[in-house]
Design brief:
Length: 90
């Protein structure tokens, strides 16, 4: 009698640890993308330039992008870790 159950995903402790590690990475990567969007919007709308920073209201875009990144990256990584391992036929 063979065991036909699919292999389980990663253990819960591993999912939690990797998810917590991905949170700041998601925040900063999303913040960089948000700042790029702020620069693009400022260029497209011909907004007045502020010296030394990408755009005058870059922090709003950075915080929104950072929040989205901090939510989506850990969620996607943990979701991928919960998927059962695929068996290879040899």
């Amino acid at each position: 009698m063979t065991d036909e159950r699919p292999a389980a995903g990663a253990p819960l402790a591993r999912q939690l640890a990797i998810g917590c590690f991905m949170l700041p990475l998601g925040f900063f990567s999303g913040g960089m993308i948000g700042t790029l969007i702020a620069k693009t919007v400022a260029f497209a709308t011909k907004a007045p330039a502020c010296d030394g920073i990408p755009s005058c209201n870059w922090y709003v875009y950075m915080l929104v992008g950072g929040a989205l990144g901090a939510l989506t990256l850990p969620t996607l990584v943990v979701w991928a870790l919960r998927q059962p391992a695929k068996r290879t036929e040899s």
